Amino acid sequence: MLALTKARPFLDRGKQLWLRLRLNEAVPLLSLAALSLFAWAFVEIADAVMEGDTHAFDRAILLALRDGANLADPLGPSWVEEVGRDITALGGNAILTFVTLATLLYLLMTGKAHAALLLAAAVGGGMLLSTLLKLGFERPRPDLVPHAARVYTASFPSGHATLSAVTYLTLGALLARVQPNRRLKAFLLGLALILTVLVGASRVYLGVHWPSDVLAGWCVGAAWASLCWFVALQLQRRGQVETGHEPAGESR
């Protein structure tokens, strides 16, 4: 009995190590599964949009968010519309560039230069992908209701939804990966997801995108973030990208 009691801590540690190894094996597979799922969803949405199958759905959602007596007025008091503009700005190029540069600086200052390089490639590649898709589809903006924000580009997929997913989900996943604290990991990933959803929803509320534009943008952004997550995992396994268990540059 005494021997079993003394051995229990070692057994518990062995079990924790085994679970951690199993999790490390599962995470790359989950990232590839997410990539496949979101890529497939985007293809399905794009096909439905091209066939015109989303027209009734798009109209119903946009009209449901407007005052029936005045389509220029989104539902809710005026301050809600103002909040919608503030939220949608979080998915604009200026804000996303600022957030990305600030995170790059943080990673560089903490001795994670390779992680910073990966982040720059991930966000830059996502922006290029969003631009190419818009040019390829060239879907007109909604003309069903007046726009409550200015727009300059094509509608499909939503650039704000795509880039917010690319940037925030990639930032959240990468920062969570280099952060050893589990609670902070969950906080960063949850915050990234909330920001992504809010930005996309605000585009529909303001009438500047069809709902199918936003759904497609989320799928593209999530697929790209999943791909970047998989690449980060492989590079970290090879020691080419820093993890949260490595000392910062100052302590080496």
Name the average pLDDT: 79
Ranges where pLDDT stays below 50 over 5 or more residues in a row are 14-19, 245-252
Order of helices and strands: HHEEHHHHHH
If strands are numbered along the chain, what order do they take across the biggest sheet?
A: 1-2
Number of helices: 8
Calculate Rg over CA atoms: 22 Å
Please bin the fraction of helical residues.
over 70%
Strand element count: 2
- How many structural units, i.e. domains? 1
Characterize the structure shown.
- With about 250 residues, the chain is mainly alpha-helical.
- The protein has one domain (about 40-245).
- The chain is built from eight helices and two strands, in the order ααββαααααα.
- It has helices spanning about 1-50, 55-65, 80-90, 95-110, 115-135, 160-175, 180-205, 210-235; strands at about 65, 70-75.
- A two-stranded antiparallel sheet has the order 1-2.
- Residues about 15-20 and about 245-250 have low confidence and may be disordered.
